[in-house]
Structure formats: structure tokens, C-alpha cells
Amino acid sequence: MSGGHFDYQQYRIDTIAEEILEIIRENKEGYDSFSGDIHYGYSSEGEIKEKPKDWQRYSDETIQEFKEGYRLCKLAAVYAQRIDWLVSGDDGEDSFHKRLKDDLEGIELKMKQLEERNWYIGEKREKE
User: How far is the C-alpha of 113 from the C-alpha of 97, rounded, in Å?
Assistant: First the structure.
């Protein structure tokens, strides 16, 4: 920790989390994903198509561990960022504790929403 900075390592951790999330979503049928010219998961009318043979690459038990890995990476990224901002002087201790609490609550809310939406598996996502 030279100079009190983590050199943006928290963003790398967050990127890993998002890559894990993609693996989770791609593992089951109904995920709206493009691979080259092939559109998996939904028909052009937006209806869920039957999954291709051997689409599920990992067992449910393994996917559960991926979900926990995603959650832990998100937590690690928050802690890295909050500690970095504190030691670099961008935040004081009071704001460190408040922002850390807020960020951790945000992660728990996101995890709850992902679970409620089955990690978007089998559900059509709204277009952005």
C-alpha cells in the first residue's frame, strides 16, 4: 500500500465479480445472450427458447458457490475502496463508516434483488 493508495485494485475486484455474474447468468436457460450470430435464450418474439443441449456447464452446487464468490468479491471491492479513500485522506473516519455501511447495505439489497429475479435467469430483462 504505497502512498495509501490501492492503485484502483477495487475496480479489478469488481470486474471479477461482474464476470462471475455473467457465468452464473449464462449457465442456465433463458439468459438473453448473443454469441456471434446466434441468439441464445430468447426467440425474436421475446419468448424463452429451449436451451441448447449441454447448455448448463456447472452443477447447481457449483453455481451456488459462484453466487457466494460474486457476493464476496463485491464486498472486497467495497472494503478496498473505502479503506483506500480513508488512508488517502479523501474521507475522514466518520464518512468512512457511514459510506461503508451504506455500500454494504447496497450490496445486500442487490443480492436480494438478484435472488428475487433468479439472477435474471429465465426472465426477460428490460432493454436499457
Answer: 24
Q: For residue 78, give its domain range.
A: 9-28+40-117
Kindly state whether residue 76 falls inside one of the protein's structural domains. yes
Is position 56 within any domain?
Answer: yes
| Number of neighbouring beta carbons within 10 Å of residue 111 | 17
pLDDT confidence of residue 67: 96
Using 50, 70 and 90 to split pLDDT, how confident is the model at 120? confident
- Between 39 and 41, where is the model more confident? 41
What is the H or E stretch that residue 39 is in?
strand 38-40
Distance of CA 86 to the CA centre of its chain: 25
Q: Let me know if residue 2 belongs to a domain.
A: no
- The pLDDT value recorded for residue 30 is 44
Question: How far is it, in rounded angstroms, from Cα 75 to Cα 16?
Answer: 12
> Domain count of the chain?
1
* CA 55 remoteness from chain centre: 21
pTM score of the predicted model:
0.70
Task: Decide if 14 contacts 77 (C-beta within 8 A).
Answer: yes
